[in-house]
Design goal:
The protein is of the alpha/beta class. It contains 17 helices and 14 strands. A six-stranded parallel beta sheet has the order 2-1-3-4-5-6, with helices on both faces. β11, α9 and β12 form a beta-alpha-beta unit. The longest helix is centred in the C-terminal third of the chain and has 21 residues, at 411-431. It binds iron/sulfur cluster.
């Protein structure tokens, strides 16, 4: 039996082109590992390579998020027209199974670990059901992802590893928090360590929703990471800076930094988005703590909250430049389906694009998909774009990167920061305003 796993892209920055800075699709490596050995598995990543639609296969499985749903439906249509059975799973099918069911022969809701084997044996017996439902569970269930499937695809030189899934917080815009319903589960520490050691991974990105959600478990893992002498990063909550033992262990175990959900500095915005864990402390304190331990901070911002205006967004970005954050993502606040934010905006009649921006022909990447409270949708789109171009202007890149903190650490770090700032600037300019899916399909 032949299984084709596909990771769809969001769209094409230019017709017929592919991404040059993609990271491994870890979730598909896990699905491949959960597949019995009598299935021959192939993996195609629509972001970095063409999909061979005419290659013989018995089953196509797509993983999709809301941003990649439209492209996934295009791919599914092409395969189903050739008589190939298509199943879809991932975050978007979990949040909107009915929509996805219209484009697939079967929908897999929730974590793959529990029922993936059952789905495959149903395919073998010609008895595929329309819906499979896995509950949130311990990631990977003792398997290691099939990393051999990533070879030759020119991903960024980072190995993705998962320690935990979920997050105990409930930020109103967060799709993973809606799916995991405030639950957080960690893998056995010895399994994580064995996975890193046996695969000889040297630069690791933990793809956890919130690496420090269970601080005791995170500390235990970091103690075991120390002898491996790897370099690693992840994403974690801002309140980590108040736990000095945690910060020390991070530095000692090779942590180069984290993506941190700063979101906003406006108190009312933080309360409305239910991000109360961010209410104490300021940007200066975060920058100082990261600098003290030699770690790099990637500030994740969201713009378009009810108290935001074009001026307040510009001020927020200026403050991130002044705090000398190495990186920032000025993300458009995004109403992901089924989240509390989506339901509130829907109830208030503020959703644009018929409430289904991810499928709408006129929606473009990085555009506001709702009516903000204190500006127009177009003003918000422009303010978000200006935030990116300001933060990544050549002058501001130099101001942020050439700091004493980076200079005294290592000249290599300056080179890396300059390189990745350049990549991020280029990526933003390429994808801003990009339509979803592939116009050539
Ligand atoms: S802290 Fe991060 S992962 Fe947790 S609910 Fe908030 S946005 Fe989601």
């Amino acid at each position: 039996m032949r299984l084709t796993l596909i990771r769809p892209s969001i769209g094409r920055p230019n017709p017929g082109t592919f991404e040059t800075a993609a990271i491994e699709p870890l979730q598909l490596g896990v699905v491949a590992a959960l597949t019995p050995p009598h299935w021959e598995v192939r993996l195609y990543d629509d972001r970095v390579e063409p999909i061979p639609f005419d290659e013989p296969t018995d089953l196509v499985a797509l993983t999709l998020e809301t941003f990649t749903a439209k492209r996934a439906y295009q791919i599914a249509t092409a395969y189903r027209a050739r008589g190939v059975t298509v199943v879809m799973g991932g975050m978007h099918p979990t949040l909107l199974p009915d929509e996805v069911a219209a484009h697939a022969d079967a929908v897999y809701v929730g974590d793959a670990e529990q029922h993936w084997g059952e789905l495959l044996s149903d395919v073998e017996r010609g008895r595929l059901k329309r819906l499979y439902r896995g509950e949130p569970t311990i990631p990977q269930l003792g398997t290691f992802p099939r990393r051999d499937l990533f070879k030759g695809k020119k991903y960024l030189p980072l190995s993705l590893v998962q320690f935990s899934r979920g997050c105990p917080y409930r930020c109103a815009f967060c799709a993973p928090s809606t799916y995991f319903d405030g639950r957080h589960r960690t893998r056995a520490i010895d399994a994580v360590i064995r996975e890193i050691a046996e695969n000889n991974l040297k630069i690791v990105l933990f793809v956890d929703d919130n690496f420090t959600a269970d601080r005791a478990a995170a500390k235990d893992l970091m103690r075991e990471l120390v002898p491996l002498k790897i370099i690693w990063g992840s994403q974690a909550s801002v309140e980590m800076i108040r736990d000095r033992e945690l910060m020390r262990l991070m530095a000692d175990s090779g942590c180069f930094g984290h993506v941190v959900g700063i979101e906003s500095t406006d108190r009312e915005n933080l309360v409305t988005m239910n991000k109360k864990q961010n209410l104490s402390g300021g940007l200066g304190a975060v920058a100082e703590a990261f600098g003290e331990y030699g770690m790099t901070l990637w500030a994740a911002l969201t713009v378009g909250h009810d108290n935001d205006t074009p001026d307040s967004i510009a001020r927020l970005v200026d403050r991130c430049v002044e705090a000398r954050f190495a990186y920032a993502a000025v993300n458009m606040l995004c109403p992901y389906p089924a989240t509390p934010l989506y339901e509130r905006l829907k109830a208030e009649g503020r959703l644009l694009y018929d409430g289904k921006w991810w499928l709408h022909s006129e929606y473009h990447f990085n555009a506001a998909a709702f009516v903000p409270r204190r500006m127009t949708a177009d003003e918000l789109t422009l303010a978000c774009r200006k935030g990116w171009t300001t933060f990544y202007s050549p002058t501001n890149i130099a101001r942020r990167v050439l700091t004493w903190d980076t200079l005294r650490r290592h000249p290599l770090r300056i080179g890396l920061h300059l390189f990745y700032n350049y990549i991020l600037r280029k990526d933003f300019l390429l994808t801003d305003g990009m339509p979803f899916a592939d116009p050539l399909s």
